[in-house]
């Protein structure tokens, strides 16, 4: 996890022949090195010159073509501080890299530079070092795998799911019950506002359904074809549409048709109708059992691995830079933002819906970042100790 030196690209102004920097170094107990670098005019000169060459292309000065105004005139307009501010980003990054090289500091992540003084220019850089890991007696960790067994009931359950998947929906002449698919006209109102007005829509009657509101399905049970029903349901307080949340919704429903699934007989014909077209029901059951056994073996392998890693982590001690944890939080926030963008939601919208501030979200992620980073560092140390390579 060594820092990417390309992020701190060293230009020709930092050569091996440059004079050493004025550096004060402090090694902390948290696996960090704090470097304070004071720059003199010779250190600043090449950066100010490059800053001038960038600014002169942007600053409009009467009587001069872009890029042709002399430095003294540009500096007189933007001020020395303006010139210095233009130079600071590259100045800080390159100066910190040179200071780390001079001090023979091997960073384990990106340093955090900070300009703490402008006259003379003084840069403070906190550099995270490789965490100090004591693995303890990790070689004594043992997790015994459990035998993999698949019960007949598990096979039967999968077979029943397959029966349901291939079963057609067929009209029936009886009152509706849970598990049926209904065709209904539905109208819903909250006060004078119409919130539902659908004709001939299909509705699956499921006990725990919250569509369109919790409890709607229970009023469908026992309803017969051609029958009308009116009822009132409370709108949940946390309903997405705040205009109707925590109010009463009056529904009017007409049942047009009731359908149920006609489950096929458990025979060879059913087996042939399933995806891969098995010749016999026994062949289908054998395949289902084999798949369940493989899933169980994979799950058991994961359990053994997770328990072994948890035991190693519990027996180890790690001292790491708090800066590494903050970087990990940054990565987690980037991952969250990327996931939200894929769902076409911005971070601001997400935080508003969750009722959190950016600071609260960051604090919430810090413990998970610490755990994730600790686990990664310990596993990396085990791999290093065992001379394992991917």
What's the quick description here?
This protein has 390 residues and is an alpha+beta fold. The protein has helices spanning 41-55, 71-103, 152-166, 216-220, 268-273, 281-315, 322-342, 347-354, 358-385; strands at 22-27, 32-38, 112-118, 121-128, 132-134, 169-171, 181-190, 193-204, 228-234, 248-261, 317-319.
Q: Keywords, please?
A:
alpha+beta, single chain, 11 strands, 5-stranded antiparallel beta sheet, disordered N terminus, extended
Can you characterise this structure?
Residues 1-17 have low confidence and may be disordered. With 390 residues, this protein is of the alpha+beta class. The chain is extended and about 95 Å long. It contains 9 helices and 11 strands. It has helices at 41-55, 71-103, 152-166, 216-220, 268-273, 281-315, 322-342, 347-354, 358-385; strands at 22-27, 32-38, 112-118, 121-128, 132-134, 169-171, 181-190, 193-204, 228-234, 248-261, 317-319. The strands form 3 sheets. Strands 6, 7, 8, 9 and 10 form a 5-stranded antiparallel β-sheet that branches. Strands 1-2-4-3 form a 4-stranded antiparallel β-sheet. α3 packs across α6 and α7 crosses α9.
């Amino acid at each position: 996890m060594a820092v990417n030196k390309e992020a701190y690209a060293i230009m020709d102004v930092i050569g091996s022949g440059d004079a050493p920097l004025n550096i004060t170094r402090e090694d902390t107990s948290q696996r960090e090195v704090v470097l304070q670098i004071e720059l003199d005019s010779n250190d600043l000169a090449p950066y100010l010159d490059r800053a001038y060459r960038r600014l002169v292309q942007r600053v409009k000065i009467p009587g001069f073509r872009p890029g042709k105004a002399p430095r003294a005139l540009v500096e007189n307009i933007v001020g020395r501080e303006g010139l210095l501010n233009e130079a600071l980003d590259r100045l800080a990054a390159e100066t910190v890299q040179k200071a780390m090289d001079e001090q023979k500091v091997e960073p384990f992540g990106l340093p955090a530079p900070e300009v703490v003084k402008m006259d003379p220019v003084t840069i403070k850089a906190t550099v995270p070092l490789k965490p100090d890991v004591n693995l303890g007696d990790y070689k004594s960790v043992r997790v015994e795998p459990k035998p993999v067994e698949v019960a007949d009931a598990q096979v039967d359950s999968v077979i029943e799911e397959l029966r349901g998947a291939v079963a057609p929906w067929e009209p029936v002449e009886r009152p509706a019950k849970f598990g049926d698919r209904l065709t209904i006209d539905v109208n819903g109102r909250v006060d004078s506002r119409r919130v539902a007005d659908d004709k001939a829509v299909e509705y699956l009657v499921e006990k725990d359904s919250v569509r369109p509101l919790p409890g709607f399905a229970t009023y469908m049970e026992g309803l017969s074809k051609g029958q009308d029903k009116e009822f009132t349901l409370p709108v949940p307080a946390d309903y997405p549409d705040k205009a109707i949340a925590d109010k009463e919704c009056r529904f009017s429903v007409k049942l047009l048709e009731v359908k149920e699934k006609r489950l096929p007989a458990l025979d060879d014909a059913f087996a042939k109708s399933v995806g891969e077209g098995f010749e016999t029901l026994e062949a289908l059951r054998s395949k289902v059992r084999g798949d369940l056994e493989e899933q169980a073996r994979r799950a058991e392998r994961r359990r053994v691995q997770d328990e072994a890693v948890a035991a190693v982590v519990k027996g180890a001690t790690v001292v790491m830079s708090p800066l590494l944890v903050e970087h990990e939080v940054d990565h987690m926030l980037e991952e969250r933002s990327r996931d939200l963008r894929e769902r076409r939601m911005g971070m601001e919208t997400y935080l508003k819906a969750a009722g959190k501030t950016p600071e609260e979200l960051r604090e919430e992620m810090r413990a998970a970042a610490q755990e994730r980073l600790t686990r990664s560092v310990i596993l990396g140390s085990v791999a290093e100790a065992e001379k394992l390579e991917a």
